[in-house]
Specification:
Blueprint (H helix, E strand, L loop, with lengths): L12 E6 L2 H17 L4 E5 L2 H5 L19 H22 L3 E5 L2 H14 L5 E4 L10 H6 L5 E4 L4 H8 L4 E3 L8 H4 L3 H8 L4 E5 L4 H22 L3 E5 L5 H8 L7 E3 L2 H10 L2 E5 L2 H9 L3 E5 L3 H14 L6 H6 L6 E3 L5 H12 L3 H10 L2 H4 L7 H15 L15
Parallel strand pairs: 1-2, 1-3, 3-4, 4-5, 5-6, 7-8, 7-10, 8-9, 10-11, 11-12
Helix pairs in contact: 1-18, 3-4, 9-10, 9-15
């Protein structure tokens, strides 16, 4: 491998590239942790408003990179390809001591491959592994050609990369770990979880298509649940860009939810809720960390469902529910496709809302997350920053010395 030039007398320069909102938040937390650990570090890159607030001025708005719907692809693709070239050109010209790409592999991995070809001395770290354990496992081995180290946010991903021949990989921690105080109830909130009427969370998804596919069946399930257990306080957290669609979709429900958009109201509801009905996604891990027993459900269009089943069989996934995958056991019931019916959802939700074996089994599983996810140790952003700075000092020729230490916190 090409050795890095001797630049030890210079402040370390780190480039961070993110291409969507979630990556922007991660990139911003990493930037702040880098400055805290190394006050003279020089930061540059591509990101959004969060990274701008952390001191990284993006040369273009990452909103340009969002593609919503298949019809938008031909129109937006030339812009996206141009931004990939421009981003790689800027990094090659600047020659930072390290490049960190954050999630969004369709954009960031293309940038990384271009940088590796033209400036092989720059160490490249990938913050958030692609889901090689579930989809296109061959990507793991291919990544070795242009990724020096993966900073994983899920605890099972280092083993997945070893099994699949991917780059060296270290679990640094999920960003939710840094919000654990928002998720965990205080004494009064824990008491409210057991009080009547129970607070039930309804979470149909954060994408327009998810709302379209789930709200009708979720609403019918809640109607059946209320007929069985009596009155409930129903809370539906959502996000601004689909708020109007959500309000229109639930207007005909017999049990009207309180719709909350502000994140602080969402977390307050999580801390008080007795149970939840949620579309599969990261929210299942949020609920698990908050200790809220749940039923996870999902519907896809027919062709998408066929593809998803084939992927699951090929990957031998025990579950598609993120909380189950992290815990390593199917503690959360998953009702997918033909099983996602009002009757089955209501039955499963009644079982986790009441004082039942199913509820206790979930709570016991959730209590293992602190150990599994190493909650209480070094914060994820600080651990990621430490590895990035070490890679920057070592250079590409020495970055292989970043040996994963699974037992570190």
């Amino acid at each position: 491998m090409t050795a890095a030039p001797q630049r030890s007398s210079q402040p370390l320069a780190i480039a961070i590239v993110a291409a969507e909102e979630s990556g922007d938040a991660l990139g911003a937390a990493l930037a702040r942790a880098l400055v805290k650990a190394e006050s003279t570090v020089q930061l540059s890159g591509v990101g959004g408003s969060a990274m701008r607030g952390a001191g990284i001025a993006s040369p273009f708005p990452i909103d340009e990179l969002a593609i919503i719907g298949l019809t938008a692809i031909p129109r937006r693709l030339p812009t996206i390809l141009r931004r990939i070239r421009e981003t790689a050109d800027a990094i090659v010209k600047a020659r930072p001591h390290a490049l960190v790409i954050v999630d969004s592999p369709d954009f960031t991995h293309r940038v990384a491959r271009r940088v590796r070809r033209r400036a092989p001395e720059i160490p490249i770290l990938d913050y958030v592994s692609p889901s090689v354990w579930a989809w296109r496992p061959g990507r793991a081995r291919a990544m070795r050609g242009y990724i020096d180290h993966v900073l994983a946010i899920l605890p099972f991903e280092p083993d997945a990369h070893r099994r699949l021949g991917g780059p060296p990989c270290t679990y640094v921690g999920h960003p939710l770990v840094e919000r654990i105080a928002d998720l965990r109830p205080g004494a009064d909130e824990a008491a409210r979880r057991l009080a009547d009427p129970p607070i039930i969370l309804i979470l149909p998804g954060s994408r327009s298509g998810e709302v379209s596919r789930h709200t009708s069946v979720f609403g019918a399930a809640i109607e059946r649940l209320c007929a069985r257990i009596g009155p409930i306080d129903l809370v539906l957290p959502t996000v601004p860009h689909i708020e109007r669609q959500v309000r229109d979709s639930v207007a005909g429900w017999t049990v009207q939810p309180k719709i909350v958009v502000d994140p602080s109201e969402k977390w307050a509801a999580f801390r008080r809720a007795r149970g939840a009905l949620a579309a599969s996604g990261t929210v299942t891990l949020e609920l698990a960390l908050s200790g809220v027993p749940m039923v996870a459900a999902y519907r896809l269009h027919f062709i998408e469902a066929v593809v998803a089943r084939a992927i699951r069989l090929r990957a031998r996934l025990q579950s598609v529910i993120l909380a189950n995958l992290v815990i390593g056991e199917n503690v959360v019931p998953e009702l997918l496709q033909e099983d996602c019916t009002p009757e089955k959802l209501a039955d499963a939700l009644a079982a986790v809302v009441g004082d039942t074996v199913q509820r206790r089994h979930q709570i016991e599983g959730f209590q293992r997350l602190d150990q599994i996810m190493k909650i209480g140790g070094t914060s994820p952003s600080a651990k990621a920053a430490g590895l990035v700075l070490e890679a920057a000092r070592l250079g590409q020729g020495g970055v292989s010395a970043l040996i994963e230490a699974p037992s570190s916190g």
